[in-house]
């Protein structure tokens, strides 16, 4: 089954909470016809389904912690297989959150050809998340959880960037700029593939 996705382009989209990953991915979907898979959205869909697994996930996410690796990976893989025939490529948004997740992804699914590092200052991310929290309805868009998510990002996720830098596939994107200017950097990186 996983054979079908072996030849598809896989792009990891990594950045802190509120850095603008989802915003940029939506624009890539429109321009390039890629499939956008946000690990957070997949997990939130499971929570919304009201399943037993969803309830356990919600408790973890509300605390700003990482959910078990196999759960996320299985969800991403199932979603990729479902889209394999129609997709030009995959944007994997919000994953890997830690180096181990990247290693497991490559074992079970395939290798990324690019890592988009969506970079914004902590202060900017907090500001954007607090604003998003006014309307998002997300249980983790509150001041206390935001702080934990940022700490975890710097501790667990930044090493992911270093790991893939050694492979030469990291493209750093300045996400302090207006959305369209951020996107022109993203488009340049994708056009160069
Ligand atoms: N370049 C930019 N300038 C200003 N606001 C931005 C921006 N990119 C995203 N935003 C806004 C949209 C959202 O309300 C919030 C978080 O963006 P997001 O795409 O949901 O981030 P992420 O998916 O990385 O958590 O910030
Ligand atoms: Mg997002």
Automatic annotation (TrEMBL):
Subcellular location per UniProt equals:
Cytoplasm
Q: Name one GO biological process term.
A: AMP metabolic process
EC number(s): the record gives 2.7.4.3, 2.7.4.6
Q: Which reaction does it catalyse?
A: dGDP + ATP = dGTP + ADP; dAMP + dATP = 2 dADP; GTP + UDP = UTP + GDP; dCDP + GTP = dCTP + GDP
- Provide an example Pfam family for this protein: ADK
Provide the assembly information.
Monomer.
NCBIfam families reported in the protein's UniProt record: aden_kin_iso1, PRK14527.1
Q: What's the name of the protein?
A: Adenylate kinase isoenzyme 1
Q: Which organism is it from?
A: Myripristis murdjan (pinecone soldierfish)
In the record, what lineage is assigned to the organism producing the protein? Eukaryota, Metazoa, Chordata, Craniata, Vertebrata
- Whichever gene encodes this chain, its name is AK1
């Amino acid at each position: 089954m996983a054979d079908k996705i072996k030849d598809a382009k896989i792009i990891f989209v990594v950045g802190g909470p509120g850095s603008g990953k989802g915003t940029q991915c939506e624009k890539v979907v429109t321009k390039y016809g890629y499939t956008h898979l946000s690990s957070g959205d997949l997990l939130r869909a499971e929570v919304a389904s009201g399943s037993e697994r969803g309830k356990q996930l919600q408790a973890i996410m509300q605390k700003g912690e990482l959910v078990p690796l196999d759960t996320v990976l299985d969800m991403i893989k199932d979603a990729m297989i479902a889209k394999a025939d129609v997709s030009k490529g995959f944007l994997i948004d919000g994953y890997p959150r830690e180096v181990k997740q990247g290693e497991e992804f490559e074992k079970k699914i395939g290798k990324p050809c690019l890592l988009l590092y969506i970079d914004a200052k902590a202060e900017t991310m907090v500001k954007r998340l607090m604003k998003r929290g006014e309307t998002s309805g997300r249980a983790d868009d509150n001041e206390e959880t935001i702080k934990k998510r940022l700490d975890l990002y710097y501790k667990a996720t930044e090493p992911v960037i270093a790991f893939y830098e050694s492979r030469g596939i990291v493209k750093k994107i300045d996400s302090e700029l207006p959305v369209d200017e951020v996107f022109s950097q993203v488009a340049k990186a994708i056009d160069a593939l």
